[in-house]
Design a protein that fits this description.
Structural class: mainly alpha
Oligomer: single chain
Number of domains: 2
Helix content: over 70%
Length: 86
């Protein structure tokens, strides 16, 4: 795993240099995001875990909230979420 992680880190470095030389603003933004979070991105290669379940739950909450066109009673909303998704 460590060899694969190192290889990916080196490849990202080369790609980052190419992006800087190209001068394309949108790619520079992506390159900055990757540079800022690379340790978390590479952490995937340590234990093969992602935050996909949290993202899925967040999407379900947003869909649930949209059905009610906003939340007025937060306590009741949290109670309903607990009953539906617990």
């Amino acid at each position: 795993m460590q060899g694969q992680k190192d290889s990916i880190y080196q490849t990202w470095g080369l790609w980052h240099n190419q992006v800087e030389n190209a001068g394309i603003t949108s790619f520079e933004s992506v390159a900055r995001s990757i540079a800022a979070h690379h340790q978390y991105i590479l952490h995937y290669f340590d234990n093969r875990s992602t935050n996909a379940s949290a993202e899925s739950f967040n999407a379900k909450l947003k869909a649930f909230r949209s059905v009610f066109r906003g939340v007025r009673d937060t306590t009741f909303f949290l109670y309903r979420v607990m009953k539906l998704y617990a």
